[in-house]
Amino acid sequence: MSIGMFAERPIGRKKTDAGLVVSVILLMGLGLITLYVSSASYAARAKESEFYFLDRQLQAAGVGLVLLIIASCISMDFIRKLLPVIVVICFLLCFLPFIPGLGVEKNGARRWFALPAGGTFQPSELAKIGVVLFLANLFDKKNDKLDNPAVSVYPAAFGLFAFVIVVFLQDDFSTAFFILVLGFILFFVAGVYLRWFAAFCVFAVPVALLFVFSEEYRVNRLIAFLRPDYDIHGMNFQLAASRRAITAGGFWGSGFGTGLRYARNIPEVQADFVFAGWCEAMGFFGVIIYFAVLLYFGWRVLNIARHAKNRFESYTAIGCGSSVVLQSLLNCGVVCGALPSTGINLPFFSAGGSSVIAMMIACGLLINISRKEFEEVPENLYE
């Protein structure tokens, strides 16, 4: 399957996709409200301020907003000229967590590096954008040579696996696997022959299983998924607490103003399980609202990709949009117990400045690609 229809842009004034902008604002706004309500109790106990996580998220959102504006205003042609530098920087940043004195280790994983002004940054979040831009550019240039794997498929696969491996070495299997899936999506939309997907699967599936069973905590996550009622006071405590919060929401939810009785008891609720707070506060009705906004965002992304100026912009739109939508679906699946725990956060909702900044850059690129040019209509045309 390949995207082959690109609407021509007549010369004239530019117009941004308002629907995309509105959906991004809604996701960010709902995420900030949910983060505060879900984490206030825990933040007051552990951080001595109920606004601790909200303040940090707002700071990251401020930086992300600046980068969103920059990404949406710079010419995509100029971005493409700088692409080798951008991709190399994204790749090299992934090595900073391994540098002694600069890398930061949390819970046995080295996924962050310290910032000069304080705080930490997780470079694997930017790696998602780097992979999308790298593959979008390569598949655009080699679109007529997809039947020659030596000049199209092999270089794309090499670049993709380079990012996957360096992120995996940070002990971040979930993000590495997500980057791999993101890459496969771009392979598919670019029109790579299905036989190459079969070859990738023959290689990737056993390697992924080997990686899963190489660490005890990953095996425990798999066991917890297969037996959700097992050890609900141990390995399944977080999922059991999440289900209680979701059930307590009922249809209409308990409301944001009443405080959350169950979600606030979920360990690290501000991270991967913040969606349980939304479910308790807004109920099933809120779940419908959230997925309606997410679906609308995805629809606008597809429309932008279909009418993009060229394949590079189209593939970039698909990659950036998939990064938000697919990650959101994976997180929601984990929170309700439909998927094994992955460590993938919920875009715009989960606490994490690196994720917020990366997602807003991705949305900035989407806004950039959506900015179409329309021919001005003379005032006396119908006179």
Number of strands: 5
What is the chain-wise order of helices and strands?
A: EHHHHEEEHHHHHHHHHE
Tell me, briefly, the overall form.
Answer: globular
- The radius of gyration over CA amounts to 22 Å
Low-confidence stretches: 4-12, 374-383
How are the strands ordered across the major sheet? 2-3-4
**Mean of residue pLDDT values:** 87
Helix count from the secondary structure assignment = 13
Biggest beta sheet attributes: 3 strands, antiparallel
What share of the residues lie within helices?
A: 55-70%
Distance between the termini: 47 Å
Q: What proportion strand?
A: under 5%
Structural class: mainly alpha
Question: What features would you describe in this structure?
Answer:
By secondary structure, this protein is mainly alpha-helical. It contains 13 helices and five strands. It has helices spanning 18-46, 52-73, 76-81, 83-93, 124-141, 153-168, 173-190, 194-212, 216-226, 237-248, 274-306, 311-335, 353-370; strands spanning 13-15, 103-106, 109-114, 120-121, 372-374. It has a three-stranded antiparallel sheet, with no helix packed on it. It has a two-stranded antiparallel ribbon with strand order 1-5. β2 (103-106) and β3 form a beta hairpin. α5 (124-141) runs parallel beside α7 (173-190). The longest helix has 33 residues, at 274-306. Residues 4-12 and 374-383 have low confidence and may be disordered.
